[in-house]
Amino acid sequence: MHVAIVHDTVTDADAPDARDVFAQADAVAEALEKLGHSSCRISCSLNLLAVEAELRRRRVDLVFNLVESIGGQGRLIHLLPFCLDAMAMPYTGARAEAMMLTSGKVMSKGWLASAGIPTPSWIGPWPGRDGCVHGSDAGGDTWIIKSVWEHASIGLDEQSIVRQSDPATVFSLLRSRAPLLGGACFAEQFIAGREFNLSVLGGPRGPEVLPPAEIIFEGYTDAMPRIVDYRAKWDEDAFEYHHTPRRFNFDATDTGLLERLEALALQCWHRFDLIGYARVDFRVDPAGNPWVLEINANPCLSPDAGFAAALEQAGIAYADAIGRIVDDGLPPDKAGTDR
Predict the structure, then answer these.
(1) What is 194-335's CATH superfamily?
(2) Would you tell me how many other CB atoms lie within 10 Å of the CB of residue 23?
(3) Labelling 183: which of 52, 130, 211, 316 has CA 20 to 30 A away?
(4) Angle, CA 265 vertex, CA 261 and CA 270 arms, to 5°
(5) What residues does 189 pair with on adjacent strands?
(6) Which CATH number fits domain 2-92: 3.40.50.20, 3.30.1490.180, 3.50.50.60, 3.40.50.720?
């Protein structure tokens, strides 16, 4: 099979979060070769007609979709899947509608809340006119201001945490933060507690939840917000980068909590009808209640990222996981599996 690895248009001058797609594409290409597939790479720009023409010219059988933004805008992440659907071109990962719903964090939270899946309450988005509080109150008057569309912790720093009991005042702050957050942002009730990531991998027997990972905030003072901000993910010179390791080993006292997290991750998978792979991010409050923060329908596949680490913990070879993602993206008659 000939697979096109399609990713963002990125240059060496771009920020590290954008350049990371090169590492993902390299790893996927190597895995595809091990599986006996040939591959090519195509960068995706706003000229989707050119992307379509290139896919047809190269006689591609399937697209491995690594696109996280188009034209530097995370809010356009769903355009390529819609284009591929119109072409009747098989591709990996979430379908276009699910990609749009999960990437738009406010829409995603609305869908979670309507299904009874616990997600922290929120205010906004900005631009908008509604400064009311939506969703279930997790308690407290601390908020975190986040981008609606951008991922990879873009724009997140210590200034993102706001302690304010008046929703109208919180809403007024969104306008000033929006330019740092892709132009659109919202405030989410901040859960002061533990942070977990659960990766999910599709397969012939349905979705498999990989071993849960907890982010540890080593050496953080009381004045430092315990969040995985941009520095923690991408700034190799920052304290946060070196003091937010993930762990996979837990005491027996956490068994019940981990089972609840796994069940919620599967609920999210089915709620958004996900395909191939995903990651669900949680916070757990001091009372032990889990809250879903985000669903990432195309989490980072770099060898040093959390998804690969969870695969290793599960004893699943990286190439085998890529094979499962590919099969999950094919029509059942071609993959020999049911989604």
Answers:
(1) ATP-grasp fold, B domain (3.30.470.20)
(2) 15
(3) 52
(4) 150
(5) 143
(6) 3.40.50.20
List the pLDDT tens digit at each of the 339 positions of the chain: 999 999 999 888 888 888 899 999 999 999 999 999 999 999 999 999 999 999 999 999 999 999 999 998 889 999 999 999 999 999 999 999 999 999 999 999 999 999 999 999 999 999 988 888 998 777 779 999 999 998 778 878 888 999 998 999 999 999 999 998 989 999 999 999 999 999 999 999 999 999 999 999 999 998 898 989 888 888 898 999 999 999 999 999 999 999 999 999 999 999 999 999 999 999 999 999 999 999 999 999 999 999 999 999 999 999 999 999 999 999 876 664 433
* Separation between Cα atoms, residue 191 and residue 140, nearest integer Å: 8
Contact 102, 121 (CB under 8 A): no
Give me the sign of the Cα torsion angle 107, 152, 41, 198: negative
Domain borders along the chain are 2-92, 121-189, 194-335
For 69, 87, 138, the CA distances from 285, given in Å and listed in that order, are: 32, 45, 8
Helix (H) or strand (E) holding 38: strand 38-44
Identical fold for domains 2-92 and 194-335, yes or no, is no
b/e code 272-305 from CB counts within 10 Å (16+ = b): bebbbbbbbbbbbbeeeebbbbbbbbbbbbbbeb
Residue 35, phi then psi, degrees to nearest 5: -85, 0
Residues 64 and 4: beta-carbon distance below 8 Å: yes
Of 95, 90, 119, nearest to 105 (Cα)? 119
Q: What is the CA radius of gyration of the chain?
A: 20
pTM of the full predicted structure? 0.93
